[in-house]
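Let us practice reading a record.
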Amino acid sequence: MTLNFQYTLDEWIELRRQAACRPIQASLIYIGEAAFIPLAAVLGSVTSLVFLEFFGIDIPTRGMLPRWVFFIPLIALAVTEVYLTACAELRKKVLTRNWQEHGSRLRYSIDVSEGGIVFKSTNPESLVTWDLFNGVFQTRSFYLVRREEDSLYIPKRILKHENDEEEFLDLLYKKMVVERTDHGYLKSNVHRNSTPTSRRGQA
């Protein structure tokens, strides 16, 4: 089975974050970026109400909002900004620029066979035999075939037909579970979000 692909922007962002930090950290970056603008809007609204009340302007919420409520969105916004600043190289705008300048030009090819996985990119192709892999995981967009030092990120979307995905998962199951169990190796698991599954992706 030969798979040719390029990483989309969303895949590039997920890949770079997954490779650079733990899943919980990557999730916090997504949450922080999604929450930043709404938090800023809430802070602006609360600030306006507090100032209007401070200057004695009659508003419907007069006397209903304690002035300390101003600090809730302010603190939340400050914490979000500090966290995103600490992960500046993994922010969406930075990774988008990186993808536009570099990632969008890269072409990849993966040949999955009984002998292993041949990965081709701008570098010379290399065959990674099955015994060098120690696990398979799923994320939102990828199958991650893991080695000791890194992982191969295979986009799910390139397995366009049900038969392609079935063939791919059957081969992974055969090479990383059945054959290793038969030969006395530690049993490898195919995971879905860190939950062991069967070759069909069922819990």
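A brief commentary: The CA atoms of residues 87 and 176 lie 35 Å apart.
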